[in-house]
Amino acid sequence: MCAVAACGFGVDLDGLFADGAGEGGPPLEGGGEDGGEGGAEGGIPSIEVQQLALGFSFGCGRRIDGTVMCWGQDDGAGQIGDGLKRSTSAPVLVKDVADAIDVAVGQRHACVIRKSGTAACWGDNEGRQLGDGTTTAAPTPREVVQLTDAKQLALGYAFSCALKNDGTVQCWGDNAKGQLGDGTLTPRSQPAPVTGISAATQIVAMDRTACALVSGEVLCWGYNGEGEVGSPPPTDAKVPIKVAGLTGVASLGATADANHVCAVTTAGEVRCWGAGGNGQLGNSKEQDSATPVVAISVNDAVSVTTGGSYTCATRKSGSVSCWGYNGWRQLGLGDSTATTDNVSTPLPVNALAGVKTVAAGRAHTCALLADGKHVSCWGSNLGHGLGRGTLVSSDVPVKVTTPGTTVRLALGEQHACAVDSQGAFTCWGNNELRQQSVTTYLATGTATPIPGIAGVTRASAGNYFTCALSGGQIKCWGNAGSGQLGNGATPYIEPTPQVFAAGSTATDVGGGSNFTCALLANTDVVCSGSNDGLRLGGAGPGTSTPVRVPTAIDPDAGAEAGAPPLGATKLTVSPGHSCVLRAGGVVTCWGYNSGGECGVPNSNSTLPADVPLPSPATAVAAGGGHTCAVLQDGSVRCWGYNNHGQTTGGLPDSNMLRAVDLGGKKATAVTGGDDHSCALLEDGTVSCWGKGTSGQLGNGVRADATTPVAVKNLAKATAIEARSNRTCAIVADGSAFCWGNNRSGELGDGAVMTTGSPAPLVGY
Predict the structure, then answer these.
(1) pLDDT tens across 297-351, in order?
(2) DSSP letters of 178-191?
(3) Over the stretch 154-211, which tens digit does the pLDDT of each residue have?
(4) Domain coordinates of the chain in residue numbers?
(5) 719 Cβ neighbours under 8 A, 6+ residues apart
């Protein structure tokens, strides 16, 4: 028997569980608007793969039997092609395709050529790129109209091209930059001939540019902002023009996420042109070039591909070399000491051999091994593009990798932090605005120590920033554009911890959406940042210098002598409103109040107002647009938005206090996420209610619950914390467990969101 969640796993990281379901049941329940998993995590029957193609955060593989499998992010456009319009972290079969001879992927759409020479496309169609005569997206393949005798495809951002057996090329879709090559800027919803191409043997497409290989030479057309067509920018080319000084070309490489193109010569050299600011041209420089330049030290290439600001080449030895931008580790150089900066000369992919071909996407890369039975991927996994079976959410608790004994948790929009018993401070999850302070911008699923921060007693994670309290002083870092760091400045990003409310002694801190509040030792609260919705507690503009939250008899928050302190003993801050627990168990809230979350009749916003509770409160928690409080008798009352049942029952949004049915048990604490609530009960169990489609209720089912449901596999909890669409708990032995959304590694369970080490696609 297991006392805590260590025995119940909701995330199958590397195929450790055959069915991928964990004790929470099938991971496909719910889904819907939060991008839940689509397709069985156990994978589809493994059949030899002959071709790979990658898009923005998804990929597809053509198999030897003519079927096509896709995996990764489906943002509602239907680019996975199975009809579900849901993301999947394991390959699923594209519907109604069993005779494909070629597959190609754009940023958000994909196409196949059938044995008959016709083509079918699926996914986004805003630019008419599906070629079916409409602008409507398709979650399953639609036939391209009036296209016959095709043999190869090339897809860009919002356009598509097909090479026909007679050597001509036809394109369709968006044409704002001349990427259809027909001499016009007219978009087309069905194929039209490219001007002047009659003997092509290969075509490739970039973001808004295309090229064709003709008798060892290259002709390009379309967007030319960085020299993509092989002539000086910025003039675009509405018809194909020859790339000067380039002959003896054996093959081309480019993808929809790139603004550069490369060629492999008959001598095995790689020559690239176009955008080069990240070193992706491979000539040891970080600058664009309209003239093809030679990638250094590559003279045995057999194929090349370009991704989002990077390039990879397959070599005769079966190894792969990559160069360019490595911010998401897409160059495959390893995880431990590999640079995340630009690499302007080719370097070998770590521990990869026997490769047949390599495919590049926006920020992830996959290699097909020569036997066709193994596919390995590396780079960004934020859109599940690595196909490893790593779930984007967990509907039962998973253990956080925090070191030591956890005593406090702080959850932000997409990141989280923990304080251990020695005051050590670690964070994990999203880091794009340096909310983890560390130098890399990469997201991480593993708790990482924050440099220079120690002796922490309290902490809070705002939407994209973090604050820690040590020795009565608060330090904050991350996004600072609204003045939320409280240091009198408003830089967009502040990676170095800054003192909030210098000169004041604080006892607690809370971060919201672009604002921060601190509870001071004198029981006052001060706030800084954006003041939209009166979230700073008083009227006036936003400020980067903390201002005092007024009391009812001190409405101007002035510094006049005799102004009474707020008398706050506890502080809770949500993205848009805040509440304090005051002497005598009074709850006072301020800020956004459109759903009645401040406990007074619905309005756009409110100054500090007391909530009319039936008896004194012992705890209070502000959620995304609702609030809950524990009363002295252990009962719970909630008020505010109720669109997912987060304040229980089928009642409308309002400031009306709703009693939560805890099954006769008493609560000791409450917490609230965007649209869900949880209560810590006196027996150490946790119950949650409200929105559950990301697994944030922890009951093993990804669905809403309008009445409390028990969190599975969790006992002896001592503290709970929720934010956004996830929840965490600390248990008696100091371990921490989290459940819910995990897109940026915010569950902290070690799920790898970026990796520089190749690892297999599920089933391959």
Answers:
(1) 999 999 999 999 999 999 999 999 999 999 889 999 987 666 778 999 999 999 8
(2) STT-SSS---EEEE
(3) 999 999 999 999 999 999 999 999 999 999 999 999 999 999 999 999 999 999 999 9
(4) 12-380, 393-558+565-755
(5) 408, 409, 669, 680, 729, 730
Place of tokens 């079976």: 389
Pairing relationship of beta strands 209-214 and 200-205 according to DSSP bridges: antiparallel
Contact 156, 143 (CB under 8 A): no
pLDDT of residue 26: 24
Question: First CA to last CA across the chain, in angstroms?
Answer: 35
How many angstroms separate the CA atoms of 341 and 72, rounded?
A: 25
Residue 612, classified by CB atoms within 10 Å of its CB into exposed (0-12), middle (13-18) or buried (19+), is: exposed
The CA-atom distances, in angstroms, between 636 and each of 39, 131, 380, 647, 652 are: 39, 56, 42, 10, 18
Helix (H, G, I), strand (E, B) or coil at 696: coil
* DSSP class per residue in 375-440: EEEEEE-TTSTT-S---SEEEEEEE----S-EEEEEE-SSEEEEEETT--EEEEE--TT-TT-SS-
Distance separating alpha carbons of residues 692 and 712, to the nearest angstrom: 14
The label of the residue with tokens 């409450």 reads 670
d(CA 202, CA 660): 65
Place of tokens 């000084």: 245
For 588-621, what is each residue's pLDDT tens digit?
999 999 999 999 998 889 999 999 999 999 999 9
Distance CA 18, CA 389 (A): 11
Report the percentage of the chain scoring pLDDT > 90.
83
353: which DSSP letter? Answer: -
Q: Residue 108's Cα: distance from chain center in Å? A: 16
Structure tokens at 76: 């509602």
Q: CATH topology of 12-380 equal to that of 393-558+565-755?
A: yes
Query: Region 481-504: what's the mean pLDDT?
Result: 96
Alpha carbon distances (Å) from 39 to 77, 89, 364, 751: 16, 8, 21, 20
Cβ contacts of residue 386 below 8 Å, gap of 6+?
89, 364, 366, 377, 378, 379, 380, 755, 759, 761
- When pLDDT is averaged across residues 728-738 and rounded to a whole number, the result is 96
Q: Mean pLDDT in the chain?
A: 91
Tokens standing for residue 191:
């194929």
Return the CATH number of 393-558+565-755, one of 3.40.190.10, 2.130.10.30, 3.90.700.10, 2.102.10.10: 2.130.10.30
Statement: residue 554 has pLDDT above 50: no
Q: How far apart are CA 234 and CA 52, in angstroms?
A: 32
Tens-place pLDDT, residues 245-301: 999 999 999 999 999 999 999 999 999 999 999 999 999 999 999 999 999 999 999
Q: 12-380: which CATH number, 3.40.50.1220, 3.30.1240.10, 3.30.1330.200, 2.130.10.30?
A: 2.130.10.30
Count of all residues that appear for the chain in the document: 764
